[in-house]
Amino acid sequence: xxxxxxxxxxxxxxxxxxxxxxxxxxxxxxxxxxxxxxxxxxxxxxxxxxxxxxxxxxxxxxxxxxxxxxxxxxxxxxxxxxxxxxxxxxxxxxxxxxxxxxxxxxxxxxxxxxxxxxxxxxxxxxxxxxxxxxxxxxxxxxxxxxxxxxxxxxxxxxxxxxxxxxxxxxxxxxxxxxxxxxxxxxxxxxxxxxxxxxxxxxxxxxxxxxxxxxxxxxxxxxxxxxxxxxxxxxxxxxxxxxxxxxxxxxxxxxxxxxxxxxxxxxxxxxxxxxxxxxxxxxxxxxxxxxxxxxxxxxxxxxxxxxxxxxxxxxxxxxxxxxxxxxxxxxxxxxxxxxxxxxxxxxxxxxxxxxxxxxxxxxxxxxxxxxxxxxxxxxxxxxxxxxxxxxxxxxxxxxxxxxxxxxxxxxxxxxxxxxxxxxxxxxxxxxxxxxxxxxxxxxxxxxxxxxxxxxx
Length: 455
Hints:
Helices cover 17% and strands 38% of the residues.
């Protein structure tokens, strides 16, 4: 009987001991979990502090927006200390700048003729806002924009290398992967590319002076044109790059591929494709004393011809021709000229009229033998051939003061597969859109447009 009591007592002690061990085990687990959570929190805090390192360029790369009423300015900070900004008052135009970070402050520098614009910004502790500390011009800060979708470096490179025949934007120029083109050290940098042509540069300096040479290689790194400092294109680059007062044409922002084997170099010009406008070079056309035009050097690497023209607006090559304007009138329109790939120029008896009183397009695009323009007095809108002959007369339609840029992109109407869309107003000012063929006949019935801008 006594033995039985001992067994029961021993069993109770074991149960109590096991319970105690369980409590201790749970206690140990809880402490371990607490320690893990604390370590993770500390790690997250450290990662957060690292991501917000105000002396790291990674903290600034991306898009930042300043808004005031309907006005909007977007700053694009790009890896490598380059960037550009866009604003609603200059639709489609891009203004290049360089940037650097020092002592927790990011400074942007944009060069224009006769002056330099420098702004300093400070990042807040959340990493979401950039406040301008060098001027009161921005009463509110720039706000970081979260991209909807991240694009991998591989995807970006694929998109770049697949670009064929279209102009390469300044931003994409800076992102061209030089590792994709073999280089044994003969050249320094790819300036721009297209259709398998790569425009490259080589800079040297010694006691005699500074020299920049330009050449063209293919995707295998083989020379199509070896580095040179002779010819009108190369000489123009050397002249601008070696300027003591305001050097330019030294980086990719001043170069673009115009298609059909032709490269462009310019300190400042707006370039148009069918539906996009690019700004090449840091110098602007609109200055305090009026409008200026800058030289545009072109290099046809197919037949190795080089030429220089003056222009403030220019199109890419399409079907063997580009259009350009060498000046602007009081309405910011101007007389058009055409140039073929050999550099032969035809002065045209017609103009483009982007603002009042003409149709609201920015610049015409030659396509399928025709381009949209107006007579020199702006009274006869229609489609002209490359010699300046009016082929489709649209003067019976009220096409004035309709902004094509809203529903159709930044350029004027253009033909594609034998058809194009035009906009016109009825007698009470409502805007209609209709498709026409190359005879000017309607293809279908006109439809009312609710989102068109008419002024």
